[in-house]
Write a structure and sequence with these properties.
The chain has 102 residues and is α/β, with parallel strands linked by helices. It has four helices and five strands; from the N terminus they run βαβαβαββα. It has a single domain (4-101), classed as Glutaredoxin (3-Layer(aba) Sandwich).
């Protein structure tokens, strides 16, 4: 499964997903975001049970604000439309998977 690019126009579809959702808030100019991005892509390919999505904070500032994103990268895990886990800063794959499984 590939990574879904999220905008305010398709966010409801993501929020209402029956799958556990991983949101990656990032910006193209952000060095740590570029470190996390390939890990997020790997998780999307290897774990089809999750919906993996990326939100560019420069393109979607309202979505970033609605999740109180002040630092990027920020990773958010949602289940049933509710945030169950959120962390800021680059994380190794194992920690991201633990967030999803927790």
């Amino acid at each position: 499964m590939s990574v879904l690019k999220v905008t305010k126009n398709n966010f409801d579809e993501v929020k209402n997903s029956e799958k556990t959702v991983l949101l990656d808030f990032y910006a193209d100019w952000c060095g740590p975001c570029r470190m996390v991005s390939p890990i997020v892509d790997e998780i999307a390919e290897e774990y089809p049970q999750y919906l993996v999505a990326k939100i560019n904070v420069d393109d979607e500032p309202e979505l970033a604000e609605s999740f109180s994103v002040t630092t990027i990268p920020t990773l958010v895990v949602m289940k049933g439309g509710k945030v169950v886990s959120q962390s800021s800063g680059a994380r190794p794959k194992e920690q991201i998977l633990n967030m999803l499984e927790g």
